[in-house]
Write a structure and sequence with these properties.
Elements (H helix, E strand, L loop, with lengths): L3 E2 L11 E5 L7 H17 L3 E7 L2 H5 L12 H10 L4 E6 L2 H4 L3 H10 L4 E7 L12 H11 L2 E5 L1 H19 L3 H8 L3 E8 L4 H4 L5 E5 L10 E9 L2 E10 L10 E6 L10 E11 L7 H17 L4
Parallel strand pairs: 1-4, 2-3, 2-5, 3-4, 5-6
Antiparallel strand pairs: 7-8, 7-12, 8-11, 9-10, 9-12, 10-11
Helix pairs in contact: 1-7, 5-6, 7-8
């Protein structure tokens, strides 16, 4: 992915960046508004724009026993949307113990100044950085004077709206309200992963499925059920009917994510795929045998074909 960088040593030669930093999980409408401001500011400075984010999520490193953190986007999903918004580069810094120990001044001097030649830093009023999140806006403006770069503050109300939106999106997804989540995101929620071999049951029923192994282990998976959506393979969009669940009709016990791709029959094992979830269709249920399941799948397919998605 052009513009996605995982190593400070791979930063392209330039005469400085307009930089912002943050998790930007989900890249929802609130995030998008901020990113547009950064893009416009970079144009006024006549400098490329760069967004710094961390992987894994800092809280997962600082508190590894905390399993409650669920992410709205993988690094690749997040970077793709950020770059689409016009940001020139996304720098993914590995959040190591060493970086977690940087004092605020060390982080600014060693990374922002020496490695990135920051010209302008765009942050929210509540931005925290450095060891134990001990650096804030006041410290950053002091360093900006010392190291000769500008700081632009994002309006407090926008930062509050971003936090509220992220929380509302997670709540909506967890409660099965996909439509509300998509409205806040400004686009369909996505699940990205690798197509792996399953038990071929769908093929026996006339509904072959692509079994998806999700890339991001902490990705928020919507509740079990059947969803309507689409995927894109080699620039062509195909409707999908997606099942998230344990397949109770065949006594399944572990959750799987399986997509029946309409009007598609190519071998895509081991390929990366992104599923766009548009509509919740029905809850997962146990049927009285495979014949009854097949009848229901035919009804699901008819509704999927009739849905206005693409």
């Amino acid at each position: 992915m052009n513009g996605l960088i995982f190593d400070l040593e791979n930063i392209p030669q330039n005469n400085g960046f307009v930089i912002t930093q943050g998790t930007f999980d989900g890249v929802h409408l609130g995030h998008q508004h901020v990113l547009k401001q950064v893009v416009n500011l970079a144009k006024s400075y006549k400098k490329p724009s760069l967004l710094i984010t961390f992987h894994p999520h800092p809280r997962l490193v600082i508190d590894p026993k905390n399993t409650s953190i669920k992410l709205l986007s993988s690094i690749e999903e997040k970077a793709k949307k950020i770059l689409e918004m016009g940001i020139d580069y996304v720098l993914v810094l590995s959040f190591t113990h060493e970086i977690s120990q940087y004092s605020p001044r060390e982080f600014v001097n060693e990374i922002l100044v020496k490695k990135l030649n920051v010209q302008c830093m765009v942050v929210g009023y509540d931005h925290r950085f450095g060891k134990n999140r001990s650096g804030g806006f006041h410290e950053l403006t002091s360093f900006a004077t010392e190291f000769n770069f500008d700081v632009k503050e994002i309006d407090a109300s926008e930062i509050e709206e971003i936090a509220v939106s992220s929380t509302r999106i997670r709540k909506a997804l967890n409660s099965g309200n996909l439509e509300s989540a998509n409205e806040l995101l400004g686009r369909p929620y996505t699940l990205s992963g690798t197509v792996v071999r399953g038990k071929q049951l769908g093929r026996q029923l006339g509904f072959p499925t692509a079994n998806i192994q999700i890339d991001e282990p902490n990705k928020l998976i919507p509740p079990n059920g059947v969803y309507i959506g689409y995927t894109q393979i080699e620039e062509i969009k195909y409707k999908i009917m997606l099942n998230i669940g344990i397949r109770p009709t065949v006594d399944g016990t572990t959750q799987t994510i399986e997509a029946h791709i309409l009007d598609f029959s190519e071998d895509i094992y081991n390929q990366q795929i992104t599923l766009f979830l548009v509509q919740f269709l029905r809850e997962e249920q146990r049927f009285n045998g495979l014949d009854a399941l097949k009848i229901q799948l035919q009804k699901d397919e008819a509704k999927t074909r009739a849905a206005q998605l693409l």
